[in-house]
Amino acid sequence: xxxxxxxxxxxxxxxxxxxxxxxxxxxxxxxxxxxxxxxxxxxxxxxxxxxxxxxxxxxxxxxxxxxxxxxxxxxxxxxxxxxxxxxxxxxxxxxxxxxxxxxxxxxxxxxxxxxxxxxxxxxxxxxxxxxxxxxxxxxxxxxxxxxxxxxxxxxxxxxxxxxxxxxxxxxxxxxxxxxxxxxxxxxxxxxxxxxxxxxxxx
Length: 202
What we know:
Blueprint lengths: L9 H7 L8 E3 L21 E6 L10 E10 L5 E3 L4 E5 L2 E3 L4 E4 L7 E7 L2 E16 L2 E16 L2 E10 L3 E11 L2 E14 L6
């Protein structure tokens, strides 16, 4: 499988072991709409957990695999650490991991930001849609947003990662595709099966 970048559903990527771990620096405009808390769409609190159904092509035949990721601690730097070695916190109007920002307010169509992966590679994030309805095994969720991340993977290749976030829940669907010479190659697909989430005290 072509490696995909570590993108906007860190907990899920860690759970599925589907993402690479390139170091980056993030570049983002400050949030311009006070009161738009990114934890509205990705609640962070010790004890929150998400169970995912892995529907990736490489999962093979048979019953889909399920993976659960649970936030187990809050470290001294303000990161919520999960049991799959992921870490997220809120800073500058964004949810970020230790190397990049993955979800940024304000939650408006075409809101964009980028992460510099290397001197020759940049991840570009964009809120592709708002007000969506997502139907996944965990239920039907209204008012969702879709974040699309793109990253060049060579002269004729690009990786696209799409994450759907539901308010009060977090990521409910994640899909990645490789575009190679104009051909779409599905890579990772996962949907939320169940969750237990509450907002952190802040």
